[in-house]
Design brief:
The chain is α/β, with parallel strands linked by helices. It has 4 domains: 48 residues, N-terminal domain of TfIIb, CATH 2.20.25.90; 234 residues, Rossmann fold (3-Layer(aba) Sandwich); 202 residues, Dimethylsulfoxide Reductase, domain 2, CATH 3.40.228.10; 124 residues, Barwin-like endoglucanases (Beta Barrel), CATH 2.40.40. The protein contains 23 helices and 30 strands. It has a 7-stranded mixed beta sheet, covered by helices on one side. Helix 7 links the parallel strand 9 and strand 10. The longest helix has 19 residues. It is globular and about 70 Å long. It starts with a strand and ends in a 32-residue tail after the last strand. The C terminus is likely disordered. Bound molecules: ligand MGD (2 copies), iron/sulfur cluster (SF4) and molybdenum atom. Iron/sulfur cluster binds next to helix 1. It comes from Arthrobacter livingstonensis.
């Protein structure tokens, strides 16, 4: 008899059954569920290889004086951490302790981590890797609708749509079972994909199934302003809807007036006819079976990501899509619990229930649930990029706890991040593998995996799901809830810290009650019946599969049309962005500055994902079938761009800019624009894409500019600058810390 649970990876949270096998790898089977309908992708099918993996951490590790990580007992390891936390706090103040969470943590862990940081550590310095993921879309959704739930409708609603506009999302690789929900739009000829690459997803638009717009990277904002312009000027806007359900139309219309089609085309490189055909299809879809606009990281992970997502919402509002029964706007949440993980308090500015930490009413409510005085809840902290930039700096974080993230690989401008991690007084990492971040730690605490513990996850449609323990954990690993509870006890923290997931969920319900993301009516027995529990789900209520049908979440019930403008640099293709760092345009930027693209011989570097690997690769690079399929980083480059540089297909290639250099292998692809190359970010060391990305951030969301950097590309593996401030080329394995572990037995 197998156990019904959900996949460890992405936010589609495909349903699966895990069956324990005596002395063998558990069996995985797809399970019927509206999002995946029994389907799984290759990562899901092979996910059992993570359980019982030979590299699984099963004992705490402590860095000894000789720099080597050695096994230690839980009592010694936790004692060391507690002593360090007290020492840092005593000497440098509570904000010298920092916490970094993850969008893969269950709701219970994410909630308890936020509480642990505020009450047990007394620090404001907590943020998480979802800042790199959903922050721009969330900020835009909050601004326009007064609420951020990635998809305000069930995924299956898409099946009947006539038109779907997918902006910067490659679902064919990032959520393969999701692709079935695009079939209706493909049959109707209405799938429109916007991506500078002709991706597997863009290929679905072939043969009359729709359109592929292949813009200059980082020009989506201009593109969307241009589409709004056409909708208004060609009389395609839904005037009744705009009058009934929105505010701000006049200012919006003025703001898009300068974006006439020819200008938009000049900036984005998208032909005028394609722009017009896009708006025609969208308007027809809205009138007929239904139209949807969906965004992914391709448009959001930019310094203007919030404004770009806002422009996409404006386009949807002009067409009357959001909050209609058969149409809508949404963003595709990424990490397994990327939705729930952004609701319950691991964000710098947030308390549970999607409450603002600066709101006195919210603070009073949560303080009451926690049984503490309101004053003992610190104020807002720093968003992820700033938090990481503060590591080891005067006035910054000196002891850092990482739960469910691998920033050594996935944070932007990783040379700086690695230097920051290496300069800490103490780095404590909870993980089940020795990730690249864990390899730098002073203390590594081995935790349980997805199929070894109970909890809840909120999927990309805002539906709360049960994860269930299906196999016994290895002796030696402990639950993260237990670790927090145990540390809280050693620190003499106020309130209560339970290590029982259901008890923690019950507390989360109370803390979320009355908030935007209200879970108070949901409990484990309800979820165990298979009930479709979409939040908000207040006590005595029924849940909300479709939001906004009657009103948006702002006080007046109306959505906001928010005028946004493309930065000065979007004035012409060839000089995108507002880089201020001179010729070549690459440096360590301040907030808001973006690399100037295509100056001289440089190319635009786009980064993103492959089907076989997940994120930093800490998990999937350890799954034999996936590692064999994609063993190393390949740079996708157009054959003509390669030929101009003397680069051969399958040959070694160096990408470089002022921030760093990457060595990998070239792979020719006519799916690339001539001015753009693509590198996945799943690999560490010399292949790490984030050696090249900029830590410039969106001023509203704090999202870094992951998606476009300026690089030179040359044949061969050329010496780059040393990568690690501390000790030569740490990425090549010779850092100031040894990453080897000695001893394997439990102490
Ligand atoms: N296989 C796999 N699946 C995953 C993940 C994974 O790591 N691996 N991660 C999960 C997570 S956390 C997330 S956030 C999602 C992400 O899912 P997606 O958003 O689909 O993934 P990405 O590959 O990051 O980016 C999507 C596309 O953006 C394009 N792009 C780059 N620059 C631009 C631009 O300037 N404009 C436009 N319009 N497009 C651009 C890229 O070419 C890429 O094809 O995937 C989830 N699913
Ligand atoms: N260049 C570039 N960089 C990017 C992106 C991009 O498109 N381009 N995308 C960004 C995006 S969208 C995201 S979401 C981030 C993701 O960035 P990361 O934070 O690197 O994500 P993961 O690789 O999933 O790291 C999760 C780590 O936590 C561990 N883990 C998993 N579950 C648990 C748990 O329950 N508890 C604990 N303690 N550990 C756990 C895993 O083993 C792994 O080591 O990367 C961002 N970085
Ligand atoms: S699409 Fe996402 S949730 Fe589904 S099997 Fe693949 S990784 Fe897992
Ligand atoms: Mo993500």
């Amino acid at each position: 008899m197998g156990t019904a649970t959900h996949c460890p990876y992405c936010a589609l949270q495909c349903a699966m059954t895990v069956t324990a096998i005596a002395d063998g790898v558990p069996e995985i089977a797809g399970r019927g569920f509206p999002t995946n309908r029994g389907g799984l992708c290759r990562k899901g099918w092979t996910s059992a290889a993570l359980l019982g993996h030979p590299e699984r951490l099963t004992t705490p590790l402590l860095r000894a004086d000789d720099g080597v990580l050695r096994p230690a007992s839980w009592d010694v390891a936790l004692g060391r951490v507690a002593a360090q936390l007290l020492a840092t706090r005593g000497t440098h103040g509570a904000d010298a302790v920092g916490v970094f969470g993850g969008g893969g943590l269950t709701n219970e862990k994410a909630y308890l981590l936020g509480k642990f940081a505020r009450l047990a550590l007394g620090t404001s310095r907590i943020d998480y890797n979802g800042r790199f993921c959903m922050a721009s879309a969330a900020a835009a959704g909050n601004r326009a609708f007064g609420l951020d739930r990635g998809l305000p409708f069930p995924v299956a609603d898409l099946d009947a749509a006539h038109t779907i506009l997918l902006l910067g999302s490659n679902v064919a690789e990032t959520m393969p079972p999701f692709v079935q929900h695009l079939q209706g739009a493909r049959t109707a000829g209405g799938l429109i994909v916007v991506d500078p690459r002709r991706t597997a997803t863009a290929d679905f638009t072939a043969d009359g199934a729709g359109l592929h717009l292949q813009p200059v990277p980082a020009t989506d904002l201009a593109l969307l302003l241009g589409l709004c312009h056409i909708v208004i000027h060609d009389g395609l806007a839904d005037k009744a809807y705009i009058a009934d359900r929105t505010t701000g139309y006049a200012a919006l219309a003025r703001s898009v007036a300068p974006w006439w089609p020819e200008r938009t085309s000049r900036v984005t490189g998208v032909p005028v006819e394609l722009l017009r055909e896009t708006t025609r299809l969208l308007a027809a879809g809205a009138r007929n079976g239904g139209g949807y606009i969906l965004t992914g990281r391709g448009v959001e992970q930019h310094v203007d990501g919030t404004d770009t997502a806002t422009a996409a919402i404006n386009l949807a509002l002009l067409l009357g899509l959001p909050g209609s029964a058969h149409s809508g706007f949404g963003t595709l949440t990424g990490q397994g619990n990327g939705q729930g993980g952004r609701e319950h308090g691991q964000k710098a500015d947030q308390l549970p229930g999607y409450r603002k930490i600066t709101d006195p009413v919210a603070r009073a409510h949560v303080a009451r649930v926690w049984g503490v005085g309101e004053a003992s809840i610190p104020g807002p902290g720093l968003p992820a990029v700033e938090l990481l930039a503060s590591l080891g700096k005067p006035g910054g974080v000196r002891t850092f706890l990482v739960h469910g993230a691998n920033p050594a690989v996935s944070a932007p401008d990783s040379t700086e991040v690695l230097a920051g991690l290496a300069s800490l007084d103490c780095l404590v990492v909870c993980d089940f593998f020795l990730s690249e971040t864990a390899a730098l730690a002073h203390v590594v605490l081995p935790v349980l995996q997805w199929a070894e513990e109970d909890g809840t996850i909120t999927n990309l449609e805002g539906r709360v799901l049960r994860r269930r323990a299906a196999v016994p954990p290895p002796p030696g690993a402990r639950s993260e809830l237990w670790i927090m509870a145990e540390l809280a006890r050693r620190l003499g923290a106020p309130s209560t810290f339970s290590d029982d997931p259901e008890t923690v969920f019950t507390e989360l319900r109370a803390a979320s009650a009355g908030g935007l993301a209200d879970y108070s009516g949901i409990d484990y027995p309800l979820l165990d019946t298979g009930a479709a529990a979409y939040w908000p789900y207040p006590t005595g209520g029924t849940g909300t599969p479709r939001l906004f049908l009657n009103r948006f979440a702002h006080d007046d019930g109306r959505a906001r049309l928010v005028p946004v403008s493309a930065a000065a640099g979007s004035g012409s293709a060839g000089s995108v962005g507002a880089g201020t760092s001179g010729p070549g345009g690459v440096g360590r930027n301040g907030a808001g500055n973006r690399d100037t693209l295509f100056g001289g011989s440089t190319l635009a570097l786009a980064t993103g994902r492959l089907l076989e690997h997940y994120q930093s690769g800490a998990q999937t690079r350890r799954v034999p079938a996936l590692a064999a399929a994609r063993p190393d980083a390949r740079l996708l480059i157009h054959p003509a761009a390669a030929a101009a540089r003397g680069i051969s297909d399958g040959g070694p290639v160096t990408l470089a800019n002022a921030r760093g250099a990457v060595w990998c292998t070239a792979e020719f692809s006519t799916a690339m624009r001539l001015d753009t190359v693509f590198l996945p970010f799943h690999y560490p060391g010399r292949q790490s894409a984030n050696l090249l990305t900029s830590s410039a951030t969106d001023p509203v969301s704090g999202m870094p500019e992951f998606k476009t950097s300026s690089v030179t590309v040359a044949p061969g593996w050329l010496p780059g600058q040393p990568v690690h401030a501390g000790g030569g080329d740490a990425l090549a394995g010779s850092g100031s810390f040894s990453t080897s572990i000695t001893g394997t037995g439990t102490p």
